[in-house]
Amino acid sequence: MRKYYFYFQKTAKTILALGAESDGNFCFFMQDKIYFSESFGDLLEEKNWQKYQKAVLKFLLKNKIKPDIILTDMHPLYLTSIFGEALSEKYKANHIQVQHHIAHIFSAAGDKFVGNATHAMPDIFYGIAMDGTGYGQNGKVWGGEIFEIKTGKTRNIKRIGCLENQILIGGDLAVKEPARMLLSILANFFPKDKIYNLTKKYYAKNEFELLYNQLKQNFNCLEASSTGRILDAVSILLNFCGNERRYKHEPIALLEANSTKPYPNIKPKIETKKDIKILNTTVLFEYLIENLHKDKKRLAATAQLYIAEGLRKIINKNISTTFIAGGVANNKIISAYLISQGAYASKTIPRGDAGLSFGQIIYYLFLISR
Fold first, then answer.
1. Same domain as 304, residue 284
2. Is 260:297 a contact under the CB 8 Å cutoff?
3. Which DSSP letter does residue 93 get?
4. Range of the domain at 267
5. Cβ distance 73 to 97 under 8 Å?
6. CATH number for the domain including 43?
7. CA–CA separation, 305 vs 169, rounded Å?
8. What CA–CA distance (Å, rounded) separates 238 from 288?
9. Residue whose C-alpha is closest to residue 29's, from 53, 52, 54, 3
């Protein structure tokens, strides 16, 4: 395990953080040091899950550790959440759930400040979390979130912005079939026949009718502010991916790989609802449809830059104390723009879920234990 020395936080507690599920790892904090495990890959694969559990238990046994605090994701059905609850009962430890995207932000903040004896974490900073899907504090699916975080005398985390909610038809099936996401977005502004013409290469007429009716009846449909799902829909609209995700992040990877120079003539549309600023993504697809006759590689870059510029516009101030994190923070177009504006992205800790347990530890030390 990698070891990180934590110069500026003192606590006698021993803390085990179990991370997420899609790219599992774990962290342990003890005596001002953070121990960071390898990535075990997708824990929904049984062999990875078994290896992960054995590694956690072996680490605790080998070091004769009884954790005082066990941190898991907020999602109640994650394997790691269930495992953490069982361990907390076994060790009589305090089980604390940490929201997925907040952990991502603290992972990036920790990447900059842990082990740095000359810099202290600011009392107020901002976080931009961009990924596929995560369990939100309001019970909806998150994945494109902006937070204002206070870690000083007044400790508080406020969600101040997000991407527009779009509909996942069939929930997780919309992750496996990007055309489901495209269909639901097009339904915001297109009549049924035109939506069918754009998606008939992926669905027979009867399949399309079922999906369209499912959307209109809101049956097994989830709202999501996910950056990853928006980019999936762009990728399939521009014909860079098919309607079957063959590997993790495939549609987004193909979108990025086929991007060139963006067009300059679309500006982010920001709306405000209940004190939360929302980046409108429907207008992006209206623009793409109107310009499908143009260079699709330029349109690909335009769409990604629209997301980056919109997220930056929501903060609308100096972003030198802003951290970007989540799997989409690995996207070079989006991350390069935000970094050029002053934001920080992890250089050592993984930006995606393999760095989440680290973020859970940092969150606890700065928001709970101080």
1. yes
2. yes
3. P
4. 166-345
5. yes
6. 3.30.420.360
7. 26
8. 9
9. 3
The contacts of residue 248 (CB under 8 Å, 6+ apart) are: 22, 42
Do both 202 and 100 map to the same domain?
Answer: no
Q: What is the CB neighbour count within 10 angstroms for residue 268?
A: 19
Does 10 score more than 80 pLDDT? Answer: no
Residues 115 and 172 in one domain: no
**What's the number of domains the chain is made of?**
2
Q: For 233-260, b where at least 16 C-beta lie within 10 A, e where not — what string?
A: bbbbbbebbbbebeeebbbbbbbbebbe
Structure tokens at 92: 């009589």
CA angle 36, 9, 37 (to 5 degrees): 5
Are residues 225 and 263 both part of a single domain?
A: yes
Mean of pLDDT values over 265-276: 94
Q: What is the pLDDT of residues 186-205, one digit of tens each?
A: 999 999 999 999 999 999 99
Please report whether residue 228 resides in a domain: yes
**267/225 same-domain check:** yes
Identify the CATH number of the domain in which residue 185 sits.
3.30.420.40
Domain check: are 295 and 361 in the same one?
A: no
Indicate whether 154 belongs to any domain.
no
Mean pLDDT of 159-176: 96
Same structural domain, 107 and 183: no
Nearest to 164 by CA among 139, 196, 142: 142
- Write down the pTM of the prediction: 0.94
E strands in the chain = 2-5, 15-17, 27-30, 33-36, 69-73, 94-98, 124-135, 141-151, 155-163, 166-169, 221-224, 270-273, 276-279, 322-325, 344-345
Q: What is the pLDDT of residues 36-80, one digit of tens each?
A: 999 999 999 999 999 999 999 999 999 898 999 999 999 999 999
Question: If DSSP codes are grouped into helix, strand and coil, which group holds residue 323?
Answer: strand
